[in-house]
Amino acid sequence: MALFDKRLQEIQQDLHNGEYKVADLVEESLRRIEEVDGEIHAFLSVNRQVMAETERLQERLDKKEERGLLFGLPAGIKDNIVTKGFKTTCASRLLENYDPIYDATVTVKLKQADALILGKLNMDEFAMGSSTENSAFQKTRNPWNLDYVPGGSSGGSAAAVAAGEVYFALGSDTGGSIRQPASFCGVVGLKPTYGLVSRFGLVAFASSLDQIGPLTKNVEDAAYVLQVIAGHDPQDSTSAKVEIPDYLSALTGEIRGLKVGLPKEYLGEGIDHEVRQRVYEAVKVLEGLGAEVMEVRLPHTEYAVATYYILASSEASSNLARFDGVRYGVRVEGENLIDMYKKTRSAGFGDEVKRRIMLGTYSLSSGYYDAYYLKAQKVRTLIKRDFEEAFQKVDVIVSPTAPTTAFPIGEKVDDPLTMYLNDILTIPVNLAGIPAVSVPAGFHSNGLPVGLQIMGKPFAEATILNAAYAYEQHTDHHLKRPAFERGVRS
């Protein structure tokens, strides 16, 4: 069995038993990056100095000193999570020279758990996009078919895990940016409850929606990483003070009596019929394991995309005001201060970022605030109440993660409205602030993966991970590896 096919817990045990050394893990990652990343383009930068760190860890291993949960495991991090002494660009020309002087809280936690930061991963610029085609530097490709997108905006993170370049990765999810690329690339992607994982050091896109989470090969690995990164952080005022359960012990695979909700609003018009069929097949598996499946209603789902793009864009227009050529990143000189601002932001931001800044500024402007921003906040409350009412009847809700499988590169890049609708099944989760996980649920006849989304009550990560684990233990979709083929197929 190849190293990348092993579970993180197995690798830890093998290290303990001396079957291989820490350097073997890192060399395997670097070899794989050398072998495939010229095609995938998942990495924006690779930490070639990481081998020096392996020696320190190996000494500790040899001395049988205490080890962190992620000891010696090379990890990739989405490039909107800051890393001290290592560039954080947000895939934007505006930050292409930005070298942070501090680590994000999740970066600190990974280091404290003895993980090795192998590099920074490509993304849509400032996390705005659904295909990783909006990066200022490169387009990431889907390992299952190199002519297709990997999803976005954590497309680099999902593709790197699917291609076996890293053992796990971190992404960020504002409207589905972990789960949708996980679905497109056939890996597991977890969006935790808002506030469970610190956002300190995450470059803000939409502060009330952003959340950091793991992308992994299987559900157990996702629980492993979540165990490390979850927890209260006094540096993040939105960080929740909740007790962190033992997510690994919660993976019993026993779901007899679990009440599973199936919302018909998530399985109707616009959903590819083969994607819908894979979800019904997954529901049968859950029923076979003793779960009780029933229909639930989420009646305000149809307003989720419009609500999201008003709120997210409004927050983005405010958050991105700081990038003016004075405090961060590049500067384009002008005749005066205002001219410098204009030239810097015109040259630094890409088209999608400018589009959302303009949309958000318009929604927040005097005369339109009540009609757009305030109304969107009211609709957000209705969407949140839909979930609260549904969760009075069921323990989890299942749906497709995305309406379709991955689409060809370039197919939707000039049609932003169609691109936005691709997130229609993941956006409501962010608006409600609840957790959700995407797990591989089979394949379409076009050869591309389909994702099953499992949503839960606030801070019920242990429940949704156990439901996903039970499903995973009775299927083999997560064990299949990408073909790296080419050719656009309908």
Please give a structural write-up.
This protein is globular. The protein has an eleven-stranded mixed beta sheet with strand order 1-3-2-4-6-5-10-11-9-7-8, sandwiched between helices. The protein has 490 residues and is α/β, with parallel strands linked by helices. The model has no long low-confidence stretch (mean pLDDT 96). 37% of the residues lie in helices and 12% in strands. The longest helix has 22 residues. The protein starts with 7 loop residues before the first helix and ends in a 17-residue tail after the last helix. The chain has 15 helices and eleven strands. A hairpin with a 5-residue loop joins β10 and β11.
What strand order characterises the main sheet? 1-3-2-4-6-5-10-11-9-7-8
SSE pattern, N- to C-terminal = HHEHEHEHEHEEHEHEHHHHEHHEEH
- Helix percent reads 25-40%
- The percentage of residues in β strands lies in 5-15%
How many beta strands in the DSSP annotation? 11
Please give the largest β-sheet: 11 strands, mixed
Oligomeric form of this entry?
single chain
Q: In DSSP terms, counting alpha (H) and pi (I) runs of 4 or more, how many helices? A: 15
Which class do the helix and strand fractions yield? alpha/beta
The overall pLDDT, averaged over residues, is: 96
Radius of gyration (CA) equals 21 Å
Point out poorly predicted stretches.
none
Broad shape: globular
Task: Tell me the span between the first and last alpha carbons.
Answer: 34 Å
